[in-house]
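Anyone up for a design puzzle?
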């Protein structure tokens, strides 16, 4: 697939000069910082040395005082409390965090994760009915609930109060809960509105701890859960998220909780973990529980204090993940075949596919896979309880939530973010929905948004890549949205004659540049074996890449991870 190379805007010259001088770093590193919003020595200190003291006062969040008052009242009168959360990573980590914290103080409580297939996303009538039977009078719902107005009104009829902790975009009217914690509320002046659902849960326990004189030190044990949710829910790693991710990763690498330790041991992982490892190793396995069996298994794993019990749950979740992969692979093949057989597909700016028997638990993953091959806003639907239900994924820069919202008259329910959403409709509405969705996207998407873009931080020479440069680059971590791993461009590079194909589709290269003939780097180019012949024939190429460490036989060297190649 053709990609657009976009070199980021020049750094502000005076800012670059100030950072170069004050931090005693190269102009290149100063430019990288400038593009990440760092413009002073103090901001650089906060960027490179995040401190937990940088976290905001949780009581700045609208309704936080009401939430804490209601929880205190419940504890004082021995009410039964339910911690309720979505079945994905953000939801299950949220429930694990809030349940673990309060369960140390109070026993009359339980947790609940709705069944993806019987109940669907968010607050369910079944969940409320179950809570009523258990004598629950307060539900704290996490990573969901912001649009559950009718369900929360139904709970009130059952004498059940709700505290909503959500980070999704609210509807026109807030739900009738005792407290609604969501920094995206239009009347909320909380200084940071990009927290994950688990991040909101952390602010709740932080507020309770603060008011009840529980030392902040006691909360550090939960930062691993916030880091996993931040990485897996793809929220920006800026502001508070950067602080939470930094200390959460530190905890995972130094003293992982039994559930995480069990997952790592089962999968023979004994290396330092970064955000990308949480995204591709930890997150999918936690998610697999809710996709294949039950999200309750994920919570059970994450709250376990016993290594043997954690290992047993982890084995089950690993099996779920293997099954998830099997469904994912099969459905992706079927979906690609449907696209190939569609005569209208090439003319369309959207992909909307439906098949009754596709596994509901993996269609979001399939939507992401399809975008890797056909870069356009994508919705994959399956049948569940007589309705079409599915997941939407978007391309960079395009708000798929707004596009779905424009078709709301054809939907029974929907919710989500700019880049990902879930939706349900009558099966007979699929055709009309597809047409209306296509019409809206066609009018609002820009042509360049239909070409995947590689954002390049800077054009550099191989001679600039030194151990010292890489050491400072590593301090830019944790990487993630709005602080992505820096991508560099070098033009006119040559292979030294050892280029070869590895693993069928990948290239292993040994590169140099005529301007620095004594500087050589090994490189890997995943999925780019088509470049073997021209490179082997001695043609110079332009490459964009990230820099990483490669460990082999105890030796550690710098390696280039090539994102794209051009002549």
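Challenge accepted. My sequence:
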């Amino acid at each position: 697939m053709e990609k657009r190379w976009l070199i980021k805007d020049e750094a502000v010259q005076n800012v670059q000069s100030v950072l170069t001088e004050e931090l005693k770093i190269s102009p290149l590193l100063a430019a990288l910082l400038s593009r990440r919003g760092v413009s002073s020595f103090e901001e650089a200190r906060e960027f490179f040395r995040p401190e937990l003291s940088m976290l905001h006062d949780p009581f700045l969040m609208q309704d936080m005082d009401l939430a804490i008052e209601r929880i205190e009242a419940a504890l004082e009168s021995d009410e039964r409390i339910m911690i309720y959360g979505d079945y994905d990573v953000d939801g299950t980590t949220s429930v694990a965090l809030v349940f673990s914290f309060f369960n140390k103080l109070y026993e009359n409580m339980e947790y609940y994760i709705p069944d993806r297939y019987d109940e669907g996303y968010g607050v369910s009538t079944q969940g409320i009915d179950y809570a009523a039977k258990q004598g629950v009078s307060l539900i704290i719902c996490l990573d969901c609930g912001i649009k559950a107005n009718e369900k929360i009104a139904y709970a009130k009829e059952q004498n059940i109060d709700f505290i909503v902790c959500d980070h999704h975009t609210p509807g026109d009217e807030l739900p009738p809960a005792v407290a609604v914690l969501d920094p995206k509320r239009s009347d909320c002046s909380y200084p940071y509105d990009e927290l994950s659902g688990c991040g909101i849960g952390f602010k709740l326990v932080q507020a309770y701890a603060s008011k009840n004189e529980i030392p902040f030190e006691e909360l550090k044990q939960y930062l691993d859960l916030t880091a996993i949710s931040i990485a897996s829910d793809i929220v920006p790693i800026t502001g508070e998220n950067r602080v939470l991710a930094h200390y959460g990763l530190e905890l995972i690498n130094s003293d992982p909780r039994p559930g995480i330790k069990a997952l790592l041991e089962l999968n023979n992982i004994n290396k330092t973990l970064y955000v990308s490892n949480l995204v591709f190793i930890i997150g999918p396995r936690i998610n697999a529980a809710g996709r294949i069996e039950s999200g309750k298994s994920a919570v059970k794993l994450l709250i376990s204090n016993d290594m043997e019990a954690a290992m047993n749950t982890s084995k089950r979740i690993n099996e779920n993940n293997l099954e998830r992969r099997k469904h994912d692979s099969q459905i992706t093949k079927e979906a690609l075949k449907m696209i190939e057989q569609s005569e209208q597909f090439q003319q369309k700016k959207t992909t909307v596919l439906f098949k009754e028997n596709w596994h509901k638990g993996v269609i979001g993953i399939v939507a992401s896979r399809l975008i890797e091959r056909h870069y356009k806003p994508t919705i994959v639907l399956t049948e569940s309880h007589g309705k079409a239900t599915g997941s939407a994924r978007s391309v960079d820069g395009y708000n798929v939530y707004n596009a779905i919202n424009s078709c709301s008259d054809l939907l029974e329910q929907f919710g989500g973010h700019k880049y990902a959403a879930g939706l349900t409709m009558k099966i007979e509405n699929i055709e009309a929905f597809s047409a209306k969705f296509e019409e809206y996207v066609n009018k609002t998407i820009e042509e360049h948004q239909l070409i995947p873009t590689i954002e390049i931080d800077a054009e550099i020479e191989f001679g600039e890549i030194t151990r010292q440069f890489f050491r400072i680059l590593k301090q830019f971590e944790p990487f993630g949205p709005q602080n992505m791993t820096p991508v560099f461009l070098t033009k006119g590079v040559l292979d030294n004659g050892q280029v070869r194909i590895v693993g069928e589709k990948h290239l292993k290269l040994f590169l140099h540049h005529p301007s620095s003939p004594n500087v050589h780097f090994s490189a890997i180019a995943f999925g780019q074996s088509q470049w073997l012949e021209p490179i082997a024939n001695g043609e110079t190429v332009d490459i964009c890449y990230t820099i990483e460490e490669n460990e082999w036989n105890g030796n550690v060297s710098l390696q280039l991870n090539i994102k794209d190649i051009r002549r």
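A detail worth pointing out: DSSP finds 19 helices and 19 strands in the chain.
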